[in-house]
Amino acid sequence: MQILHANWSRHAICLWAESLDRCLEAGRAEKTQLGFEGSAAGAATGIALAEPGLTATLGSASEHPFAIDSSGLKQLLESQTSGIEELVLTEGRFRLRLPVVDAVPAASERLATLIGSNVIPADARLQWFDVPCLRLDPVHAAAGLLTIEETVADHKLLAGHSLRYWIAVARFVIEMLCDQRFIPSVIRPDARRTLAVWQPWLHDEDAIRRLEALLTAMPPVVRAAFPATEDQPWLVLRDALLAMTDSVVRNVLREDGFGDAIADRPASDPNVAWLGGLLGADGNLAGGEYLLRDVSLWISRLDETGGDEPLRLCLRLDEPGMSESGEPDGHWTLTAYLQHEDDPSIAFDAEELWSGAASRQQSGMAGMQPQELMLRELGRASRVYPKLEEALSGSAPQPLLLTTNETFALLSEFRPLLQESGVMLDPPPWWDDAASRLGMRLTIDATQDPPTATEHTAEARNVSSLGLRQLVEYRWNVAIGDDVLTAEQFDHIRRQASPLARVNGRWVVLRPDDLKTASELVEQSENGQAKLGEVVRMAFGMERNRPSLPLLGLDARGWLSGLFDSEDGQRRLPAVDPPKGFAGSLRPYQLNGLRWLIFLESLGFGACLADDMGLGKTIQLIALLLHERENAGDETIDPTLLIVPTSLIANWNREIERFANALRVQIHHGPDRPTGAEFIAETNEHDVVITTYGLVSRDVDSLSKRRWGRVVLDEAQYIKNPPTKQTAAVRGLDTAYRVALTGTPLENRLSELWSIMEFCNPGYLGSAGEFRRLFAVPIERHRDAQVAQRLRQLVQPFVLRRLKTDPKVISDLPECVETKEYATLTKEQAAVYQNVVDHVLADVDRAEGMQRRGMVLAALVKLKQTCDHPELVSGDLDSNGRSLANRLPTADRSGKCQRLLQMLEQVVASGEKALVFTQYRRMGHLLSQMVQHEFDCDALFLHGGTTPKQRQKMIDRFQSGDHRTPVFVLSLKAGGVGLNLTAANHVFHFDRWWNPAVENQATDRAFRIGQVRTVHVHKFVCLGTLEERIDQMLEQKAELSKSIIGSGEQWLTELTTSQLHDMLQLRETAMEVEE
Amino acid sequence: MSRSRPPTGKRRSGTRLRSAPDELVARAPLAAQPIVQRWLLWTQDQFSTSIWENAVEEARQGRLASLHLSESSAIAAVRGGTRPSTVTVRFPELPAAQWRQLLEALAQEAMSEASLLSSELPPGLLALAEAHGVKFTPSHEERVQIDSDPRRGDTECQRAGAIVCLCMLERMVQEPHIVFLLRGLSITTVLEQLRELRVMQVQGAASAHGDPFIVATSQPLPALEESLEEFWGSGSMLTDLEQIPPASHAPHALLRRLGPSPLDGKFPLVGLLASVYDVVADAARGMRDRAEHIDVNGSTAAEQ
Predict the structure, then answer these.
(1) What is the ipTM of this complex?
(2) Cβ distance of A120 and B277 shorter than 8 Å
(3) Pick from A1014, A999, A1031: which is nearest to A917 by CA?
(4) I want to staple A177 with a disulfide (CB 3.0 to 4.6 A). Which of A94, A526, B122, B284 is the partner?
């Protein structure tokens, strides 16, 4: 495994990587002193400035002991990054100042997590290291970093924060170029040279916001490359922004042959002289010093935004009066006025200022020359909107009269420029309103009635099985807002030949492109017929033949009515009672979830139930299974195939047993599982078949031999993209209905959304590539809110996600919800557990009194630790939980750890926070390392050795809005009392104290005054072990027993050997079975 | 009881010369005296003795109604007949190259800018200029140009011009900064240019565009030695940064805000820059799409 880093040094991005293997090999003693060989690689094109803030001098430096050599890194990148071979990557070295711990450079945060290393001591010294790297010259740096981003996004390499930082810078540079936010300029880097350069324009509000974030987010290591910029992040950032922008622009213009434009022009022309530098290879402006001042004056116009004045120039647009027939009568009027920045109620137009009606004293303009200010600002504004000059033709500014066409030009073309220049122009309220623009509405007519929603019969399934493949009639209608236009109305609008028209008593914006498209729509007025999926995809812009007008609404008629409108959809849900056989109660929102599942299945659609963790997706699904059977009458219902992660088999089995005892469950798992005809025969005897993702591909032949009533995916995000054999097998199963369950917020993980929707409703979101182009890239990379909204509308009918914070849900939830999470042991855990049990039973038989009690207690500790993680009893860890065998802490060896990480994934993805309590300090270390590694975050760990200062710092960090610390691991003794950790709304008891009072005290760290959300308490229990037995006793026994059992573990030492055997013996359910 | 007004130097809204020419130099601030002296001599040299003496007399009587000074000229209303007539006196302008030399010389010493900012002339201004070969005051060969009402005779015109010069000299005693204005640059422009030169000289570098203000207002970060705890990371700020959506502006917005190029020359700079913006934005979008593995047909590299 490698951690990829990036630094900016000597006008190039230096990519370098730490190797985990080399780090482990190097250990703590190995170091090699090497002389420094500065890289000769420089910028391929573009300018090279004197190093700013150069404070270091060249001297000897040590070779970085666990950095990958340049050629190895190149091979690695080329093998894992598509398109990187097109980039110019030069092998080289650069110098980096790193903290030194025990004479070797401190491992990066991510690497330290992998090797279980400590944090860098505050008194560590810094030392220069010589680091092999691949240099990306400025021309290729921005594009190269974005290309590499795709690789690290796929987790093929781990990205260090420095790499993420430079990717953010590269994205900023590219976005600025795409948005034309760069300027030609002149700089004099020193007394000898004057250069023409291309610069990003960083003075406007948007750019400043990004720049401020870039300056603040710069990790210290980014400042540590040679030449050192110490405490001035701007120096390194400026150099990079300038070099990348200048090099890319220069390169593009050179390739496009722009130099030809000035080939025969006299160099005495200052424009030509400047362009010569801007279009040349090195930017040199020999003898061009005089340009510095003139260009400076020109560029300074961009800084003139009126922001220094307390009064700001504003423009008011008044609509023309209306004739009796409702038609515009006269001109639009544009009036200039000055408005106070701090108190918008203070505003004066030119007439008031010139007539003296605006008293300076009363209006906060004392000491000002408002007339001159208005004239100056109008003069400035007329630079971007020349028509304003007409307002200045008299002795005082006059209101400007505009035709409708001129008004359209002002609003569409000039208003953005005026705003950029600091001149406010409030558009009419209808201007940005989608309802005031030509658009279209789609009407889908579904005439064939579907079966009754509450029916779950074979007939019903046959009728509705087509789902999105059902043929429907559709029709596009030109509309304005909710009003569909008739051909006559549209013809009237078209004849007005004006970009702004009065329609039904209101102004409507008629863009030429909209008119053209609308005309075509009106001409093709006949109804179309297509598959429902195609029509919906067309509506949301996924089909190439879709008209380009904005979609103003989708009217579904017949049995589809209300499907695409969330409120109507709710109204159309069938009235369903909770199944009679359901042993429990469904909260109102859960009953609604059941109704929604029934409704979608009745129409043949796949459904994704994506409720927040803790809202009861499991019981909603169980209720659906029961409902189906209770309403089937004499019909035979095919079994539901439930595909879950291995660690959840036991949980599902338990929950079905608990809530729907009537359902016959078959667990298809383990080495003795039936196959072929035997399997089919057995499935016929069951209502639910539970299997795992791993087995679906392995047993695909058996699983494909029958048609399933329903295939359900729990933790559906396991269906990955790009498709694996397992994914293909899942999607290939023959089934009437498909349901996906996930607690992950899909809006943040679009590839998962696609994969899940592809399972639920195949083809609905198009191919993976199409989805990526149309949705994933615009949303994830370019934060396009409109596309995100379109995607939401597209999937909304098929995804139900309720949050714990939803008002309708929160009123149904108690303040604290406690659940048990059952885990199985891995094979390794089971073997260790059995070994401990065998030894203790043999030993206690021969011992008595205190010795016996001691043996039992020691064995209990070992067994509980085994349930946590086998490494705790194997003696492979030091006291800090660091692996003595240089192994990474891995969750694969512990069923509990796997389950915990699954659940934490949803906590982290939802932006929530969690406390994890354990009794064992070494387990706490392991957990914090796993969490850190798994979620790339900072996991806090508070234990008995934590100093009061560190403790307070951890608490402050966790309680703040810092999303880098979503998980706080605490030892039960050190963190169980006295802390206020209300930032968490999940509490995990990873191992059990068996004393509810102690556990409740720990829970109360989050569930206390100041907590405004429902707290979810998850208590972990290993099935088939003493944990389950004690838990059952606590659940079932009388109060007296509770008080004994619940007081701790001492009572266990008093059990007879036979009772002890019964208590500790490993049951069959404990083990994760070999697949 | 009536009281007489104290002398104000004005008569009937006019401007009366209060000092005899030979007293002017002595009344000027010390640093301005050599320049006032040089201007006085040059002015006297422009007129015959009789015209000069008559002008002195008439100026003291208050024949000047108003005086407005602008770059290289003095515009005055001089009483002569039934109503005042406008007289414009133009002074030779200092060539741009000489201005640059003079300002660069001034920028060498911070004292120069400090004096000017406190409304004084830098000590040794004239000597400094001459040491750099700059003729800060007009030479004897350079002539004054006087425009007046053509109905005035030549002598009358000369006398009116001399009156304007005398009053201009008296203004110079009170406001020495006008020595820059009379040679073509306002004090505001002089200070602006000195500021630019100062920045260039202090940093050894200069730029036609300044750093964004956020750079100046942001606090310096702790030294690396004090940042060891977070040495490799950036807290949650990097994630926050990644969430900021890119902005979108109108095409050619910056170019249109810049307006026409102020550079002399005939080449259509702005037109070419418009093409530059289009070509570069297209190329950048292509670069971004390629990096993100999107091709025009909508499939990803991974799919291919």
Answers:
(1) 0.74
(2) no
(3) A999
(4) B284
Per DSSP, the three-state class of A562 is coil
Tell me if the pTM is above 0.90.
Answer: no
Which residue, among A709, A733, A465, A744, has the nearest Cα to A609 in the 3D structure?
A744
- What's the first-to-final CA gap in chain B, in angstroms? 108
Q: Please answer yes or no on whether A178 and B250 come within 8 Å at the CB atom.
A: no
Least CA distance to B229: which residue of chain A?
A120
> Using one digit for the tens of pLDDT, what is the confidence trace for A603-653?
888 999 999 888 889 999 999 999 999 988 888 889 999 999 887 888 899
A50 touches B: beta carbon within 8 Å: yes
Disruptive mutation site among A201, A265, A298, A758 for chain B (greatest number of B CBs within 10 Å) = A298
Residue (of B181, B207, B101) closest to A242 by Cα position: B207
**Residue B226 Cα distances to A61, A226, A736, B234, angstroms:** 22, 18, 63, 14
- The number of helices, as runs of H, and strands, as runs of E, in chain B is 13, 5
Per-residue pLDDT tens over the stretch A909-961: 888 999 999 999 889 988 988 888 788 777 789 988 888 878 888 888 888 87
Q: How near does any CA of chain A get to the CA of B40, in Å?
A: 34
Which residues of chain B are within 8 Å of residue A384 when distances are taken between CB atoms? Answer: 256-257, 259
**CA distance linking residue A902 with residue A896, whole number of Å:** 10
What confidence tens digit (pLDDT) does each residue in A99-119 have? Answer: 988 778 888 877 876 666 656
- Give chain B's length: 304
Q: Which helix (H) or strand (E) holds B102?
A: helix B96-107
Of the candidates A497, A515, A489, the residue with the CA atom closest to the CA atom of residue A437? A515
Opening angle at CA A194, ends A189 and A200, nearest 5: 70
Q: Do B259 and A383 touch (CB under 8 A)?
A: yes
**Cα–Cα distance, A903 to A930 (Å, whole number):** 13
Which A residues in the span 58-87 are in contact with B, Cβ-Cβ below 8 Å? 82-83
**Is residue B171 packed enough to be buried (19+ CB in 10 Å), middle (13-18) or exposed (0-12)?**
middle
pLDDT averaged over every residue in chain A: 82
